[in-house]
Amino acid sequence: MTSNREIHLASRPQGWPTEDTFRLVETEAPTPGPGQIVVRNQYMSVDPYMRGRMNDVKSYVAPFALDAPLDGAAIGEVVASEAADIAVGTTVLHGLGWREYALLDATAARPVDPSIAPVSAYLSVLGMTGLTAYAGLLEVAAMKPGETVFVSAAAGAVGSLVGQIAKLKGAGRVVGSAGSPAKVERLRALGFDAAFDYHDGVRESLRAAAPDGVDVYFDNVGGDHLEAAISAMNLHGRAAICGMISQYNSTEPSAAPRNLALVIGKRLTLRGFLVNDHNDVRAAFVRDVAGWLRDGTLSYDETIVDGIENAPDAFIGLLRGDNLGKMLVKV
Q: How far apart are CA 192 and CA 174, in angstroms?
C-alpha cells in the first residue's frame, strides 16, 4: 500500500501556535468507494482564517477536530476514481488539504484546466484569494472610479490583488501598508501610488500617504490599522472587513479601535464579509482576472514551502508575515 502523510491538530493553541500544535501522521493511502475519487495533492493553501478554526468556539465554520487532519483548499491530480464524471488524470480543486492523498466525493471537487495557468494559481489569483479581493473591493466596499483606497497587509495574497484591481478599475489613489521595506518596494512595483512600513506608525504614515483622506478601506489587519483608517476616512467612506490578523493570536482584547464614535458623524459603513456570500460575481471575476493575466496588467506573488512536513512552519510563517503574496505548500 502507498503511504499517506497527514498533518493533524495535536492541541489547541493558547496564543501563537507552535510546532507542538501539529503532528505528522503516516497512514495508508485511501481507496475510493462508489462516486468517490482519490486526489494526489500537488499544492495546498495555508490561510489566516485557519487560526480561528484551531479554537473550540462557535464560528461561521466548524473548528478543526483534535487528533484529526486539518483541511483547507488544495489542488491535485486524480489518481483513482469510482466516479463516472471525473477520470483519472484530471486536475481538481477541492477542500481537503494538509495531506498527501485526499479521499472525497466527486461532487466536492471542481475540475480545472492546467493549461490555462500554473495549477498553483487556482489557489491564489484564480481562486478564493482572487475572488475575495475582487468581491470585497467592488461589491462590499463598492469602490467608485476616482476614489482613494487604503489596503492593509497589502503585500499579502489578498491585499496585493486588491490594490492592483483598484487601479485597474479606476481608483484615483491606492495606498498600502506592509511589514518591511522590501514589501513596501514591491507594492510600489505593483502600481500602488504610495506604500509605507506600518512599523513607522500607521496613523502618521497614512495621513502622509493620503492627505485628502480615504474613501475605501480594505481591512486585513484590524486593530491600529482600523483605528487609523477610521480617522482618515472621508464622509460616507466604506470599509470592507476581510480579516483581523493582528488579533488572531492575542490572548487579551484589542485596545483599538478607540475612535468608533467617528463612524456616526462621518456616516461610515464598516461591513464584514465572507467570500462564499459572493459567488454571484464569480463569472465577472473570472472574465476580468483572466483578461488581466493574459495582457500582463495583473501580477501575483507566491511564497512556496516544499513538503507536507513543513506545512506547520508555513502556517506559522504566514501569521508572522514571512510571505510575499500567497503562502502555499508544495505537497
A: 5
